[in-house]
Write a structure and sequence with these properties.
By secondary structure, the protein is an alpha+beta fold. The protein has two domains: 4-233, Rossmann fold (3-Layer(aba) Sandwich), CATH 3.40.50.300; 261-331, Beta Barrel (OB fold (Dihydrolipoamide Acetyltransferase, E2P)). Helices cover 27% and strands 31% of the residues. It contains nine helices and 18 strands. The chain has helices spanning 42-50, 92-102, 107-120, 136-148, 166-183, 194-200, 218-223, 228-234, 242-249; strands at residues 4-13, 16-26, 31-35, 57-62, 65-66, 77-80, 154-158, 186-191, 203-208, 211-216, 238-240, 256-259, 264-266, 281-290, 294-301, 304-311, 324-329, 335-337. The strands form four sheets. Strands 6-7-8-3-9-10 form a six-stranded mixed sheet, sandwiched between helices. Strands 13-17-14-15-16 form a five-stranded antiparallel sheet, with no helix packed on it. Strands 2-1-4-5 form a four-stranded antiparallel sheet, with helices on one face. Strand 7 (154-158), helix 5 (166-183) and strand 8 (186-191) form a beta-alpha-beta unit. Helix 2 packs across helix 3, helix 2 packs parallel to helix 4 (136-148) and helix 3 crosses helix 4. The chain is elongated and about 75 Å long. The protein binds adenosine-5'-diphosphate and magnesium ion. Magnesium ion (MG) is lined by residues 42-43.
């Protein structure tokens, strides 16, 4: 049986329905990411799991226990928010130990727990600092330790990295994942950043307007988008009308077809290609964006504009607008997507 079971969960604010009869399960130790655009209901769902928002209908089970009507404290979940919400007049150690104090944990035990988690989040030596003496990334590590020190059954993280600058975000996301793995802690992480979701998660629940429209491994969501929304959200997929697919590739599809920009490549002279590679298509470069390791070209093939990502190899020059290219498509990578 799954560690977490969410059954037919519904939530509205007044007349506005946020989600309706949502179902999912999470295994013990799994790292799940709720991914989706702003306003799709991620925070509301997380807060319902935490008990901070009452639900209208449905049930939440954890480890064989129906926790739907338990208070937030009784649920034994740890929560970290985007705003660190530290007590400004308390030191790092006092912030981390706050929950232990509330639970009247014996002092010696509290000290050793605080020390353990201070070390785990790499804040050793900073125990006596106050929040205003810490960087944003350090504050967030205090918030993380404060949640972890209570040894929660589930860790809930609501966009904990969104307020941090890019470099800190990248190191902290790895650190969160490492700690989560070390503790084998069941975790639900919320983000609107698909790259973050791809890098961190065992499974992604992709949300759109209160529905989980696709769930699966990062790999499966990225390479097999179930519908147009997922294809649009997960990458820079080209969405080709079925008429275009028929005209260009002589393929019949019931729906639009999603083509990843990096699955298109330039024909090399004199090279033999396998049967699943299309015949060459003549394309004209419209413009390009230099992304660093990748150059993203906007090209036109017959009437169709497409995005093509080519590796920025030192031997290749940037192709100016108007350049002609012979492009090849991997026909196995053409993914029909429902509306
Ligand atoms: N406390 C609240 N009262 C009324 N409406 C809310 C409240 N919290 C969230 N909502 C609404 O619920 C929807 C989902 O919000 P939210 O869960 O915060 O989305 P996300 O976290 O994905 O950005 C939004 O339309 C938002 O305006
Ligand atoms: Mg939110």
């Amino acid at each position: 049986m799954s560690y977490v079971q969410v059954k037919q969960l519904s939530k509205s604010f007044g007349k506005q329905r946020v989600f309706d009869a949502i179902d999912f399960t999470i295994d013990q130790g799994e790292f799940i990411t709720l991914l989706g655009p702003s306003g799709c209901g991620k925070s509301t769902l997380l807060r319902c799991l935490a008990g901070l928002n009452p639900v209208d209908q449905g049930q939440i089970w954890v480890d064989g226990e129906n926790i739907t009507d338990l208070s937030p404290q009784e649920r034994e979940m740890g929560m970290v928010f985007q705003s660190y919400a530290l007590f400004p007049n308390m030191t790092v150690a006092e912030n981390i130990g706050f929950g232990l104090k509330m639970k009247s944990t014996p002092a010696a035990q509290a000290r050793s727990l605080i020390q353990r988690f201070v070390e785990l989040v790499e804040l050793k030596g900073k125990e006596d600092r106050y929040p205003h003496q810490l960087s944003g990334g350090q504050c967030q590590r205090v918030a993380l330790a404060r949640a972890l020190v209570m040894q929660p059954r589930i860790l809930l993280l609501d966009e904990p990295l969104s307020a941090l600058d890019a470099k800190i975000r990248k190191s902290l996301r790895q650190q969160i994942r490492d700690i989560q793995t070390e503790l084998n802690l069941t975790t639900v992480f919320v983000t609107h950043d698909q790259e973050e979701a791809m890098l961190m998660s065992d499974r992604i629940f992709l949300m759109h307007q209160g529905e989980i429209v696709q769930q699966g491994s990062p790999e499966s969501i990225y390479t097999q988008p179930a519908n147009e929304f997922v294809a649009g959200f997960m990458g820079h997929y080209n969405l080709l009308d079925k008429q275009v697919v028929k005209a260009l590739f002589d393929l019949d599809s019931p729906h639009k077809v999603a083509v990843r920009p990096e699955s298109i490549y330039v024909k090399e002279e004199g090279r033999q290609y396998e049967a699943h590679i299309s015949s060459p298509k003549t394309a004209h470069v419209l413009n390009h964006q230099l992304l660093g390791n990748v150059i993203r070209y906007k090209v036109q093939i017959e009437q169709q504009e497409m995005t093509v990502d080519l590796l920025n190899r030192s031997s290749e020059r940037l192709l100016p607008a108007g350049s002609r290219l012979e492009l090849l498509f991997n026909l196995n990578e053409m993914q029909p997507v429902s509306p």
